[in-house]
């Protein structure tokens, strides 16, 4: 058996390459959506491509995903317009800037906002189907084959004050959840049948090949137990996913993410792409940021409940995106939170029907006592909420009037949302710093010649856990994967 001598964290020096086993203009690591889109665009521009994928088939996390993209602006996509949402580019852009948080990349956001409609059409041209129907009920992703959903905090404070709300989640057509499978089937057909691009499976990219100045010239890969050396005439594109499944990297860069109990991942998000980029001087940014959720909707009636922490206090408007609420839950004392409901809205979360009902009572004081909260706190919180809700307002957390209803019909219940009762699901958002062209840059902002990154290996549009909205990862990975392929081909 051959023992691997190369690691992602150390480049193989050009002078140490014993021979070349093959070459192409573009060497692409990873065959999820970012890798597929980079290959399609590079090939379209005339570059030869070779994809290396460590699994036995294409797909990665993308194939397991909900297949939901985030699109808008430009007056609306056809499905938005058909359903009365003329989504202005400035509203889309403002929302994306808020979603990107304090480190939002204005250049990247504007580029995407202005080109999102064209990108939607490009995906359709690759064979990706969108039915064109609207699903108004709040959900995580459609359980139907509908397209358009509210997939973020668009209609919730504070987002609704700075960007006119519109639904922007666009799900690939498939009956039921998990449309990412259809998405990847269509992209793989485009890659193989239309573009005749070669992919090598069961092949792990081990290390970059770089000269003494850290200019990237190729890749060392392992397949069939042997190490092979491939030359990249124009560049290497790292599309190997994020690092949610690498506990050591989480400990170092995103320790809070160690509390994620369910990795939203195809299983190979071990950070090898990020480490390869760092090995030649690439900067890694926003590495502490991650998406995390306990998706309590559907049913949407639960939005009418209120979340409280162990002090019996509310901490967020419950109509915000479930991922934003997930972030807020994580930072509550002891990481504990409960969703309080009355009899009129009691249902169990569809995606977690075994949720622990931690307390039931005919009076809120009983719930307060059962949960061990300071006497009077929870009762005061509910009374205050009910008083304002009856008047159609929520002056403290600004939940929209559509979701305000006094919690007065007993029996009352508290459902557990703490780490131990319902472990959060999530994935990482930090990654290699890149220009919008996909070129990896060092901490000074200088381009590392011959190196590109896209998808969750890069830090892209989504870079703030509190602002993430469903669909942003696939939109980012596909659009900026394409830009990387295009720039590389022109290099
Ligand atoms: C259940 C679930 C639901 C989701 N729903 C949505 C959604 O609806 N909308 C949305 O925007 N996002 C969603 N996501 C997140 C989204 O799917 C991912 O963030 C996105 O697909 C990442 O794309 P990628 O191309 O960067 O990575 P991937 O699709 O994971 O592709 C990376 C590929 O690289 C391969 N690889 C890794 N290391 C190496 C190596 N060293 N050598 C060779 N190959 C390697 C992996 O095997 C993998 O195939 C969901 C994820 C999951 C798991």
TrEMBL record:
Protein name (Swiss-Prot/TrEMBL): FAD-dependent oxidoreductase 2 FAD-binding domain-containing protein
Which residues belong to any copy of the FAD-dependent oxidoreductase 2 FAD-binding domain? 25-460
Q: Which UniProt keywords apply?
A: FAD, Flavoprotein, Oxidoreductase
| GO terms, molecular function | oxidoreductase activity
Cofactors required: FAD
| Annotated GO biological process | steroid metabolic process
Q: Which PANTHER family match?
A: 3-OXOSTEROID 1-DEHYDROGENASE (PTHR43400:SF10), FUMARATE REDUCTASE (PTHR43400)
Q: Which NCBIfam families does the record cross-reference, listed alphabetically?
A: PRK07121.1-3
- The answer to whether UniProt assigns keyword Flavoprotein to this entry is yes
User: What Pfam families does this protein map onto?
Assistant: FAD_binding_2 (PF00890)
According to its UniProt entry, this protein's organism is Sterolibacterium denitrificans
